[in-house]
Design a protein that fits this description.
4-stranded parallel β-sheet; 15 helices; disordered N terminus
């Protein structure tokens, strides 16, 4: 079974597995139209209605985490790309970040993103001293990865541990940060735009079989709706017959070949310096050329910073645009 790729992906998606399998709630953003577990094949349509967001000094998010601030935060340090995504949606930029998603042209672009300070230590071990040197009003990180930083940050700033498991969670976090920053109009606009995009994609649902794979070499993994926010959109817009097999399980090329995949999306994850596309490496396997998507030129290498790590409404909007275009 693919081990290396699964371990790397853990920080981008597998970290949410436990909560999802436990049936965690999706937060205030849910409506009757949104009901249904990710990937369950439900025909429910996404509502485009957006409830008003009210400014607040205290919120309790979908996971039960309470965040209280004396004033709207202006200096926010992002330790997870979801934070960067939400700030851009709200017309803000992080005081510092350890994500590369801001360089995407649908975010800030390379030139503007290069001006945002980077938190040293990488995603797994961001340096507390560096974080605090920016005197942040709020620090947002991934619960399973950055929760260990909470004691060191206590008393100096407010730490908000987030744990997105679905697009509904992402919308909930957008609404919460919009309330805390007082950028309610921007939050409502961003939610409306995403819901509208998703509803339109649902109306044009493709009958083609889609697949998202990720990795760095021949050891690849399959993104499933239970463990990946972006993959959670795919049962709404295509035929997506892939289910989670747990942290240590995945699919073989033989199994993928048997499913007659029409469109294949590939997320190449780099270990340090980029060393080539995952699709090129998999092409060395003779089974690869027999997959319908490969034979028909429907293998799309996507930006893993957006597809695997973004998980906010802006990132998911990019995913929807690119996926629906390929699935036509």
């Amino acid at each position: 079974m693919p081990r290396t790729a699964l371990r790397v992906r853990r920080w981008a998606a597998i970290a949410v597995l436990g909560g999802l399998l436990a049936g965690c709630g999706t937060g205030e953003a849910d409506t009757a139209e949104d009901a249904g577990a990710p990937g369950n094949g439900t025909a429910a349509r996404t509502s485009t209605d957006v409830r008003p967001i009210e400014a607040a000094a205290r919120i309790t998010d979908a996971k039960g985490v309470a965040v209280s601030l004396p004033k709207p935060p202006e200096k926010i340090v992002c330790l997870v790309a979801l934070c960067d995504d939400i700030l851009v949606e709200l017309g803000m930029t992080p005081t510092a970040t350890n994500s590369q998603v801001l360089a995407h042209p649908k975010f800030l672009g390379e030139e503007k993103a290069a001006k945002i300070p980077v938190v040293p230590g990488g995603f797994l071990s961001p340096e507390v001293e560096a974080i605090l040197s920016h005197r942040p009003d709020l620090v947002i990180g991934l619960k399973d990865t950055h929760g260990k930083l909470a004691p060191a940050l206590k008393g100096a700033t407010t730490f908000w541990p987030v744990q997105p498991g679905s697009w509904q969670d992402s919308v909930g976090y957008l609404r919460d940060l919009a309330a805390l920053t007082g950028r309610t109009e921007q939050g409502e606009k961003a939610e409306k735009a995403f819901r509208t995009r998703l509803a339109q994609a649902e109306k044009r649902k493709s009958d083609k079989t889609a697949l998202i794979i990720y990795g760095s070499d021949e050891n690849f993994g399959v993104a499933t709706p239970e463990t990946d926010v972006a993959a959670g959109l795919f049962p709404k817009i295509s035929h997506y017959p892939w289910k989670s097999r747990g942290v240590d399980g995945s699919y073989s090329l033989e199994e993928i070949l048997a499913r007659d995949v029409d469109v294949l999306f590939v997320e190449t994850l780099s270990f340090g310096a980029p060393d080539g596309k995952l699709s090129d490496k998999l092409a060395e396997n003779p089974l690869w050329s027999r997959i319908p998507a490969v034979k028909n030129g429907k293998v799309i290498e996507v930006d893993s910073e957006v597809w695997a790590k973004g998980r906010g409404t802006r990132s998911l909007g990019v995913v929807l645009d690119e996926a629906t275009a390929a699935l036509r």
